[in-house]
Amino acid sequence: MGDNEEPQDFIRVSPEKLSADEVSQLVVSPSCGAVSLFIGTTRNNFEGKKVVSLEYEAYVPMAEIELKKILSDIRQKWPTVKHIAVHHRLGSVPVTEASVAIAVSSPHRNDSLDAVKYCINALKATVPIWKKEMYEEEGYTWKENTECFWRKKDDK
Description:
By secondary structure, the chain is of the alpha+beta class. The chain is built from 4 helices and 9 strands. Helix content is 31%, strand content 36%. Helix 2 runs antiparallel to helix 3. Mean pLDDT is 91; it is low at 152-156. It comes from Pyxicephalus adspersus (African bullfrog). Heterotetramer; composed of 2 small (MOCS2A) and 2 large (MOCS2B) subunits.
């Protein structure tokens, strides 16, 4: 691959286990000095309750459309960004395992760092992926991301 390689977008929403290595390798480019990564993992607690795993469900075709929009926004805001990879896991994600992995390459670090932060925030706000927290004690709760656009409409 030369330096004139075309920018590429890699999107995957599936039950496959996520790999930080895999997403970072997808975006590496000879013309880029930065690869920025974000890995979102399941933590073991929420508001004092002990969480054992998270379950993710998605309307996959719609999730992919929304992710493509986010990636196209990133390319508008940060034109030097080269490659972008966003992988989101579905199904059960045990504590410490990754539910989302995002990697962005750019010639210099600021653009890829800013783009990764924008990407995870936009993903949580607009992509139809639902999270169910599985607790040790009393069952589970479906969680909406507080940023979700579909919440804001009904909240008075």
